[in-house]
Write a structure and sequence with these properties.
alpha/beta; Rossmann fold; single chain; 12 strands; five-stranded parallel β-sheet; disordered N terminus
Length: 332
């Protein structure tokens, strides 16, 4: 009996030791997983579809979150001044790859935070002019990624809006003055307006209150249409912008199809999901040993024109056949 009693006690002790070891083993396995730091200028809601695309890109390389890779997210919610501190948090963690998305502010914050951890960015402008890469084909440093060229399409969007409302003598342009591409956006818009023969009313917004004030200005002045310029802050306020445009019945053009499918009149820009898959692909390839310096910066090859016919009808706008023919998607 004493022998059996001792064996039983030893067995219970053994089980207890195994059970106690399970959390340690789990923690050790988690610690052994590579960690991707994901820094973004916007918010989880606004970037939900893009996160899905990013995970798909990782999956194509063989990385599944929670199984063989961890992702640590940091969101600035359109408050660019928070990005420097968030980037430093991820660098201190440390992470194996730092993904910086949501435009230039996140990419520049990541670049300032580390010169050794590989960075994969998604920006709207020229990475060479910004100092993020030595060249498109051979970035040369610790950063590479994708450029969406969103900030370079302001003139094109203004032209499309003018084609949609050709009788408009004055068009408003809503820009975020804190966005690094602001000066170039402003220059492009003014030059395009002069070429077309339009009066351009420049509106600035960096807060919710300023967005509302901008639409009040549109309502109180003879501004027949509005072009919302590319900016991560505006992406985080998509529903607000679309709602205000509907409330004041102002024809508006945006940068991404998500605005048009959410009820906005028209959008023109890149296929954002495709490029976020590319960001995931690059992050996975770097985890497997490739170097950012050798991975060329990816540029978009396809641009999407999306027109919401339902919204056009509410606004009393007849969409020209010339636009319908070239539209990639018509929402009705």
């Amino acid at each position: 009996m004493r022998f059996n009693h001792l064996r039983r006690r030893e067995f219970i002790t053994f089980l207890g030791g195994v059970a106690a070891g399970w959390p340690l083993a789990a923690r050790a396995q988690q610690a052994a997983m590579p960690v991707i730091g994901f820094l973004n200028s916007g918010s989880p809601d606004a970037y939900a579809d893009r996160i899905v695309a990013f995970r798909e890109g990782l999956g194509q390389i063989g990385y599944i979150e929670g199984q063989n890779v961890m992702i640590d997210f940091r969101w600035a919610f359109g408050q660019y001044e928070r990005l420097a501190g968030l980037a430093k948090e991820l660098v201190r963690r440390p992470v194996h790859v730092l993904v910086a998305t949501g435009g230039e502010p996140a990419a520049l914050a990541a670049k300032s935070a580390t010169s050794t951890i590989p960075i994969v960015f998604a920006i709207g402008g020229d990475p060479v002019k910004l100092g993020l890469a030595a060249s498109y084909n051979r970035p040369g440093g610790n950063a590479t990624g994708t450029t969406l060229l969103t900030a370079a399409l302001e003139a094109k969007r203004l032209g499309l809006l003018h084609e949609l409302v050709p009788r408009a003598a004055t068009i408003g342009a809503l820009l975020n003055p804190n966005y690094p591409a602001f000066d170039s956006q402003l220059k492009d818009l003014r030059e395009a307006a002069q070429t077309i023969g339009l009066q351009l009313n420049i509106l600035r917004a960096n807060t919710d209150a300023e967005i509302e004030a901008a639409f009040e200005t549109v309502n109180q002045h003879p501004i027949a249409a509005l072009a919302v310029a590319a900016a991560p802050f505006f992406d985080t306020r998509r529903d607000k912008l679309v709602s205000l445009a509907a409330r004041y019945a102002v024809p508006t053009v945006y940068q991404f199809r998500e605005f048009a499918t959410a009820g906005g009149l028209m959008s023109y820009g890149v296929s954002i999901s495709h490029l976020y898959r590319q960001v995931g692909d690059y992050a996975g390839r770097i985890l497997k040993g490739e170097k950012p310096a050798d991975l060329p910066v990816v540029q978009p090859t396809k641009f999407e024109l999306v027109i919401n016919l339902k919204t056009a009808k509410v606004l009393g706008i007849t969409v020209p056949q010339t636009l319908l023919v070239v539209a990639d998607e018509v929402v009705d």
